Each structure stands twice: as structure tokens, then as C-alpha cells.
Amino acid sequence: MKIRISTYLAIMGVAVALGGCIEEIPLDTTDQETLLVIEGQITTDAKPHTISVSLNAQFVQGQESTPSPIVGATVTLFENGRELILQDLQNGKYATPDTFRGQVGHSYFIQVVTPEGTTYQSEPETIVAVPKATGGFTRYNAEQNEVDAFIQTPIGTDSGENYLKWRAEGEFKFTEASSPNIKVCYTKENIDFNNLSIQSSEEVAVDFLEEQFVVSKSINFKFFEKYCIHVFQESISKKAYEFWKAVQDELVRTGGIFETPPARIAGNIFNVDRPSERVQGYFYVSAVDTFRIFVDRADSGNPVNLCRPFPPPPDECFNCLLLSEKSTTVRPDYWEP
Hints:
Blueprint (H helix, E strand, L loop, with lengths): L5 H7 L21 E10 L6 E8 L10 E2 L4 E6 L2 E4 L1 E2 L4 E3 L11 E7 L5 E4 L2 E2 L8 E7 L4 E9 L8 E13 L8 E7 L6 E4 L7 E11 L7 E10 L2 H15 L16 E3 L7 E2 L2 E4 L1 E9 L41
């Protein structure tokens, strides 16, 4: 099922840098409440993993407010009894070392002590092995001028239960128009801020998913040469799946006022001394399998080049490193010819 996630997360206030349009709903804002938001993830990828801690005032004059980051907290990651204090990045985010990676079979939870001394904790989660995707493809949607990406993967396990979640990242190749030394850049971008894709082996009658939707990406000049969609297939716990399924169900519900306001969807973070306090967000862990889908210009509606004689081309056409802070002239070893 193709699900747009921005409406829920903008209202819920989970600090995951997601965006989108919000349908205005006449909710009673007299009972305003400021909630703590804690969210993050540990995966089997070797990278810095971050935990976000912020305050979110749900309604200010009928509008959702921007979460306020909390700095100066002490965030500790527990792994099978071992403790790791995360680095305070001074922006409401707390990070593991760059080379940290989770281990299949290990159990993890986080503890957050605010500057005021209040202690919050997540329920423990254990990393389970993830099935390896065997294929992927895209389908061009001319009406929406976008490509939809799909993954092919086994989902059944020996135990009969498996819960999967998908993330995606884009990357494109860009060749300068002209310069003394023409450069070729490769630029990664976030394309996953408007989608939620999950699946459970309990809810499908097959052991293999032939056409699991992952993400949609609007077509533009970035598809002129070649575009890569990085698909990250994650194994998640049953509780994490139930959390995201509740989000999904909220999004597909029709009618007027939400039967269950999104902020009421329970996460797995709690106040150690006052469990009745409502805390937003979710901490989860996952093993990750990466699959890359390359999209050629002919498979994306033949988009036009950014660098055309008229109108005058932008500066990026003469220095492709201006495309993004993530742009690089180093060709990835996985890039197709």
C-alpha cells in the first residue's frame, strides 16, 4: 500500500525531519500540552546513529508548533548490559561513534536524563536478521510525472513471522556543461520524507513479495543522466511494526475528526518515575539489507537537462559541487556505467 506519512508526523511532532502539507482540522486547542519527543534508531550499518530529544507544544493558536531541541541531556545506549554515553551534538541530537554498528541478536534500549534530572527510558528491542532482497524495479507514472520504486524480497521465515520496513535515499549523476576541467558529480538526497512502507508476514499469504512499494520520486533534471534509488530493507520487531501500522491506519482513516488523535498513538518511551506521563516518539532497532535500483533517462519520461543555452544555465552547470553539500566528484564503486 502506498502511504503518505507527512500529515501524521507533522501533527505528532516526532523529530524525524519529515514534512508535507497538513490538512487543517477543527480540534479543540484549549487543552494545550507540551510533550517530550524522543526518537531514534540503531541499525547494523556502521555509521553514527542519532537519538533526537525535543519538546513539542502540540497546538499554538490552532497551529502545530516546531519542536524545540533539548541540549545538555545525558543520553545512554544500553547494549546487552554494556553502556555507551552518546555525544551531545548541541542541536537536540545525540550520536554514537562513527563506526558503531548494531549486532543481530543483541538487545538495546536508551535512557535519557534531561537537564532537569528527569529520567526517561525506552523498552528494550532486539535486532533480528533481515531477509536479503533479490530484485527491484521502477515504474514511470506519466500522469504524476514520477517513478514508483518496488522491491522484490522473501518475507517468510522459519518462525513464520517477519516484520519489514523500507527506507530510501536518492543519488544522481551530473556532468558540467563546460569549464576548463569538466567535472562529474554524484549527489545524494533524501527522498523518503513523504512515504511509509511496511509489511508483515502475518498479513500476507505468500513467502515472497513480488512488488512491494517503497517510494515515489518526482522527475526532474536529476534523472537526465542516471539516477540511483538506494533501498534500505529493515527487519523490525513486532512492537515497532504495530506502532507504524497504527500510524498507517490513522492515515487511511476517512471521516472528520480523528477517532484517535495521532499524538495518542503510544510509543515505547516512558518516564521512569512517572509512567503515566505521555511521551512521544519511538526507539527501534533493525538489521539492514541495501538494494540499489538504477533509473535511466528513457525509463523516467526523458527529462530535459538543467544546462541548456536558454535561459542562461545556473552556476551549478559550471561547478557541480554547488548542487549540494553532499555533492562529490568521487565516483561510487557501485555506480553503473
